[in-house]
Amino acid sequence: MSALRLLWWAVSVAVALFLVAPLLVIVPLSFSEGSFLHFPLPGVSLRWYHAFFASEFWLASLWNSLVVGLSATAIATALGTLAAVGLWLAPLPGASAIMGVLLLPMVVPSIITAVALTFAYAPVGLASTHLGLIIAHAALASPFVVVTVGATLTQFDRTLLRAAAACGAGPVTAFRRVMLPLILPGVVAGAVFAFATSLDESVVVLFLAGPSQRTLPRQMFAGLKDTIELTILAAATMLTVLSLVLMLLVRVLSARGAAAGRP
Amino acid sequence: MSQAAAIETSRAEALGRRRRRAARGRSVSAALLVAPLLVFVLVSFAAPIGAMLLRGVEDPEVGPVLPRTLAALERWDGTDLPDEATFAALVEDLRAARAAGTLPVAASRLNHDTAGLRTTLVASARRLAAPFEGSAREAVLRADPAWGQVETWGAIVRARGPWTDFFLLAALDLRRDATGRIGPVPEDQAIFRTVFLRTFWIAAMVTAITLAAGYPLAALIALARPSVSAVLLFLVLLPFWTSLLVRTAAWMVLLAREGVVNHALIALGLFGAPKQLLFNRFAVVIAMVHILLPFMVLPLYAVMRQIPPIHLRAAASLGAPPLAAFWRVWLPQTLPGIGAGCLMVFIQALGFYVTPALLGGGADQMLPYFIGFYANQTVNWGLAAALSLLLLVATLGIVGLYGRLVGFSAVRTA
Questions:
Q1: Using the beta-carbon criterion (under 8 Å), do A15 and B294 form an inter-chain contact?
Q2: Using one digit for the tens of pLDDT, what is the confidence trace for A81-134?
């Protein structure tokens, strides 16, 4: 029994280490003084971070990632929240078909999305533009908002809306002053998911974006095709820290969201 | 019926009317709230995908450019060279298309069918532009000997349009000959069956490995002390949230010739010289397993968390040895999690593009790579669309099958 238990623990810990080991390797390497891809480090320095912030290519890609990510997040969060509230408010005819369409961007393999959008956006002048990429990322990110806000709404007490109406609030006021404050953790969590989706998106941007829409993933892809410079690892480390922040944000919010609707 | 009762009834009716009106109002509000996103997704996402998939069965290029030739070929049976009238029609079509500048589009479409036909068409049009004496047939055959082959005319008939099964057949390594019979393409052009098998094989391998590695870990997270499972869950969630490209980059650095793994193994005395660990199947599979493991562990954990731990203790107190208790009490209850995890991993694995492109060699590229290749490099939209259609049918088919067999209600994602 204890031998079995030991084996089970050993395998599990090994798998958990396999999951984090690659990240544990690239973070120290990005602080190397040398330019080798292996240990031991010749010394510790911030030279690759200096290189990142001194390179107009990397800076432009960081800027593009933030602009595209935040714009796509704004669109996806606004439309996704309204849609989730609509789906929760009343049973609609063909609700499952509507849900199917809304979740489609989550299911379609990204290469098909990339090729199809390039083919459709080029004739209307949206290929190789920031706007085209923002629209594409907003569509890709919107299902995460719908699902997250929808999950939060299952906790929301319907009688609160009736109470607001009884107190003379119109539907817009009731939404703004009663519902939104209570489901806000879910909305923000959905927005974080949307931003993470855009930040991580690498296939559509390869096909749809031009040289002036390089995002961080696209710049990293180009760098990996070339000789690998440690600047890539500096970028990767910063992206990982950002992901960690987003993840903790969602954990905190879902803990709060679970309490939503319960005064 | 007393007056009081009548008043009561009419009151009840009025109340019912008000309720119905309120419900109708809610439905209208709901529809208005859903509409913006629905329209946005339909216009910016669903319509482009539908339009592209249609390209896989459309064939619009050749019909308008060679109308007379195609009309003449209606009576042709595909066994022998066409008659003099058809050759004359071709000369007329080529002259008209050359004057209108519409020839290149049709020429590159025919080139997707048979390599070399672009040159045949453009060169013939140039040579036949000037008036000539005698039979059209001899002049055309002089312009390019390819017109003396039945299959050249077969290619034109195949591209007749407006609808076609040409690209779908090509994606399955099949084609119609000049008489319209379906048969296999020549050996040296048959690549897609290999690509499909490779794609499914890699996806299945990655799914099996993630299940074998993820199951014990998920079980430990579900059954261990809260402090231990919180740490382990964090170790699963951190890579889950990390960018796919960051993780692909990490594996490139680990496996590079001068990378961490080679250096460590040389330092340990296991290798004499650095080995090539990148650009092969091993590198692709290990990185894909790493990227997809959280998608296996999280659904498994979500299901395992619901199983009361008392079941295992009950089995033990009834005299079951640990393995039997696991096999007969615990494992059957985790089957929905196994199904959900395998589905998530397998479907995502089918669509991997970036990781094989960076870590694999030529023989490790999967179906998505070829979709990108035909869309971007050879600009063969029809074939890219037909391959996309097959990938999408496979993906949605597996999801649908799973929904039929298992249903999606059993699993709540973690």
A1: no
A2: 999 999 999 888 888 899 999 999 998 999 999 999 999 999 999 999 999 999
Neighbours of B269 (CB within 10 A): 7
Residue A212 CB burial class (10 angstroms; 0-12, 13-18, ≥19): exposed
Q: How many residues does chain B have?
A: 414
Cα–Cα distance measured from residue A188 to residue A205, given in angstroms and rounded to the nearest whole number: 25
CB A198, CB A77: distance < 8 Å: no
Q: Which residues contact B354 (CB under 8 A, 6 or more apart)?
A: A202, A203, A206, A221, B244, B245, B248
Question: For position B2, what pLDDT does the model report?
Answer: 75
The DSSP call for residue B79 is S
Chain B nearest-CA residue for A109: B351
Do the chains contact at A82 and B33, CB–CB below 8 Å? yes
Task: Supply angle C-alpha A174, A175, A180, rounded to 5.
Answer: 125
* Chain B, nearest residue to A200 by Cα: B243
pLDDT at A259: 60
Which chain A residue lies closest to B22 (C-alpha atoms)?
A90
DSSP B222-285: HHS-HHHHHHHHHHHHHHHHS-HHHHHHHHHHHHSTTSHHHHHHHHTTS-SS----SSSHHHHH
What whole-number distance in Å separates Cα of residue A148 and Cα of residue A154?
A: 10
Residue with token string 């039945």: B150
User: Which of A8, A12, A27, A92 is most worth mutating to test chain B (most B CB atoms within 10 A of its CB)?
Assistant: A12
Instruction: Calculate the alpha carbon distances from B118 to A179, A184, B102, B103 in Å.
Output: 64, 60, 13, 9
Show residues of chain A in contact with B375, CB under 8 Å. Answer: 115, 118-119, 207
